[in-house]
């Protein structure tokens, strides 16, 4: 698929939403979402994630502040035109039950008047892209598909008219954990191809870490507690709220987003050990060690050994400060001095 038209940056400036009953769901949120990146909004139930997402396509109108897509204030755009330029995927997909899969996927292209042949070509292309054979599934109805397959159709439909932004509200939470992991992997591959500006809401920190280029942790009232790439969020939570939210096993999660430190490998000459590819994460390297009962692995780059990685090296890599992390200072009596104020 041609992903060239692609993506636009989103800018939120002091965005506020007070519902008519007085509930202030979002108090005043400012953030810049980079074009072509996946930004994950995460936080406890009721913190305002869905409200933020729906203000971007104006399913909910903000009561203050400005949202811009590619520099243009969405509040000043024609709302139908705006929504057609934004893909939207929700938990239970919302496919039209009496329409075939192909017709469902072609909804927006039809609305904007594409010729029939182009719609057919596009829908078949998209179904293939989300791993559904168009010949097999195109003429079926939604109830003739599994939950995971329906979710894929939802993603294909959202991408049909090549939107500049893709909004996803808990897109994978209605399926079982195994299907969810597969859909997440597929989404990652898909996003490498289409490079949309994606805003994804989840309450699952593992999903956030797997899918996000950056993660925004929100607390009640849509208050932004930290906005950082997954490795930075896990290595150096900005405060207790974030630390608690990412969980006590953040070290393990960090393994999954930390690449093998190529520059720190030991010489591999003569070493007999299982091997891993140089592009692997520390988690993958550790998994090989555990599976093979070995305390080290040979790291292979283009078929030749690039060096040796040991369990101790993994421990040391996790202990090393990650990008953006403040070095933790411990005094000799073990007391933690307060962090320097900036
Ligand atoms: N139409 C509405 N009228 C009044 N209050 C609302 C309305 N919709 C949402 N709220 C409130 O706004 C706050 C934020 O809701 P929102 O759905 O954005 O949260 P969320 O973080 O997406 O929650 P969850 O993870 O449970 O889906 C909540 O306190 C909710 O009760």
TrEMBL record:
Record-annotated ABC transporter domain positions: 10-246
Keyword terms of this UniProt record: ATP-binding, CBS domain, Nucleotide-binding, Transport
Stretches for region Disordered: 320-342
GO molecular function, one term: ATP hydrolysis activity
UniProt cross-references to Pfam families, sorted A to Z: ABC_tran, CBS
Limits of the CBS domain: 265-328
Domain of life: Bacteria
SMART domains: AAA
Name of this chain's protein: ABC-type quaternary amine transporter
Organism expressing this protein natively: Virgisporangium aurantiacum
